Amino acid sequence: MNSAIKSKQAGSILPFSFDNLPVRGRLISLKNLEEFVPAIKNNKGFVQDLLKQSLTAVVLFQQDLKADQSLTLQIISNSSIKLVIAQAMTDGTIKAYADVTEDNTIESYQEFVKQNPRIVITVDNKGKTYQSVIPVIGSSLKDSIIEYYEQSVQNKTYLSFIEHNNTNCALMLQHLPTEKVSEDDWSRLAMVADTLTAKEITSLLHYEIVQRIFAEDTVRIYDENILSFYTDVDKARMEKAIKSLGILQCKSLLDEGDIEMTDQFSGLTETFTHEDIQRIFKEVKDGLIERNKDK
Fold it and tell me: Is residue 33 a part of any domain in this protein?
């Protein structure tokens, strides 16, 4: 995604590690999700919570990648919750969307698990994609993420999600496989991590939270990474959809006026005039001519 993409600051993620233990951590806060992510505003209850946690999770996953790699998390099912998708782009931009039928009655993760959904993680490395499948288990998305890290990546993991006053926070701890961490130390870290309160995530800075929680340890804090909401339209994607309709269908739609398309992530609308449609299909025609010349 290029630097011209419009965005609004969403929050930040603070990486840290322990000098006295082979453990690393990440503390993330996202603010005002309902204001900048239409899918979160337009859904309620379980679906809304799942979107918020998916968006938080995708940021955590991306921290394991190189700077030029983006990551997409998709939760796919044949139920009334057809798709939940969250993306973290290379520039720190995040976005999410859900495809849910109007008659949806699923109100909990346990109900959703019974529908046999699958979680697919896709890493985009300069056009080359790699996929992993996460088992859908437990009573929350947190359980599925922990299972993935502990079984597939073999990193012992602690994860908690907290929401308070339009702020969504996640605290993650991971054992680094370089050396062993004792059960006593791991249990102690999890116990003090559990003391993080909802009030603290809105009243304290990230580094203050880490210093307060892990006061007994020697913690090394790294530079905080800023996250932004995607607030633009993917015009290239829209033009691809127009091409798939075909010129005859587009001409029929133009008889009723300009064609309007809404970006599913930002909720913003792009208008395509008669001149735009002519240009799009002229590019298709020119592309076909060039390919025929090469044969």
Answer: yes
- Same domain, yes or no: 255 and 142: no
* Assigned token pair, 237: 């994607």
**End-to-end C-alpha distance for the chain, whole angstroms:** 33
Q: Rounded distance, CA 146 to CA 102, Å?
A: 31
Calculate the average pLDDT of the chain.
86
DSSP per position, 128-185: EEEEEEE---SSSHHHHHHHIIIIII---EEEEEEEETTEEEEEEEEE-TTS---HHH
Backbone φ and ψ for 176, nearest 5 degrees, come out as -85, 130
- pLDDT given for residue 1 in this prediction: 36
pTM confidence score: 0.78
What is the domain extent for residue 259? 235-290
Which tens digit of pLDDT belongs to each residue from 200-212? 999 999 999 999 9
On whether both 197 and 262 belong to a single domain, the answer is no
Among the listed residues 230, 162, 153, 237, the one whose alpha carbon sits nearest the alpha carbon of residue 198: 162
Residue 1 lies in a domain: no
The CA-based diameter of the chain, rounded to the nearest angstrom, is 72
Average pLDDT over residues 247-256: 85
CATH code for the domain in which residue 162 is found: 3.55.30.10
